[in-house]
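FYI - complex with adenosine monophosphate, inputs then prediction.
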Amino acid sequence: MKIIRNIKEMSEVAKKHRQRRKSIGLVPTMGALHEGHLSLVRQARRENVFVVVSIFVNPAQFGAKEDLKSYPEPFKNDLVSCRKEGVDIIFHPEAKQIYPEGYKTYVEVKNLSDLLCGKPRPGHFIGVATIVTKFFNIVQPDTAYFGQKDAQQAVIIKKMVKDLNIPVEIKVMPIVRQKDGLAMSSRNTYLSAQGKKDALVLSQSLNLAKDLIQKGLRDSHKIIHSMNNLIKNKKAAKIEYIAIVDSKNLKPIEIIKNHCLIALAVKIGKARLIDNYLVT
Ligand code: AMP
């Protein structure tokens, strides 16, 4: 396994593999790798000759008051995990190479970036779309792997690839959860022992929604109301949003007919957690 920090070197190595017609799989991450990330890496490993994992805490997707400075960076552990999974390249560029002085170009997927998580985090998805575009250009993968955990991100990346005719296939892998139901996240490390218990209310509220739908309830407003009541029972939980939306355009749905996405963001202490359930 090779660690590459230089953009030009990354491009050249990837180009060599492409010329030898070796399929390239890319897994973009911000590091602090857990089983959720590793599920993407394993899928990439199964499907490609050459696997690149990028580890880059992207400053462009953090707001001024967010956790850029405290974001966990256990780089050595990440290397151990990636080596174990048979990753070929860790692409770990420096921020000043990615955004050199005078950097000016950003990618915005309109009418999707400003919804759900985009409301409290203006600019977040512009940062995400920009870095993913840059990594697609640098690595030029055949397939890139993302997690359903970040449902809105997956929708935005798919739309961006379609709109900009970027020649990459996007694969979205299911949410990996702890045994107790908590969706794995690098930000779970911010949770105290009590916070870890309180955080279970996110997946519990999604399970409640699932049960209500199975029992025949279709009114989004009523489902959201029940989820809201359950979460509000936890004093430490601060709901940012609970939404039932179309799984492609992320517009609110009043009455559930077939596919939709139930998504929520809740703060537990200083950890901002997201989770979702795809109704199919
Ligand atoms: P991050 O490092 O948080 O930017 O995540 C990198 C990729 O891993 C994104 O595509 C995430 O959606 C995905 N991911 C993060 N957590 C999980 C999880 N619990 N299950 C599946 N994929 C995940």
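Residues 29-30, 36-37, 39-40, 146-147, 149-150, 173, 175-176, 183-186 surround adenosine monophosphate (CB under 6 Å). Residues 124-139 form the longest helix (16 residues).
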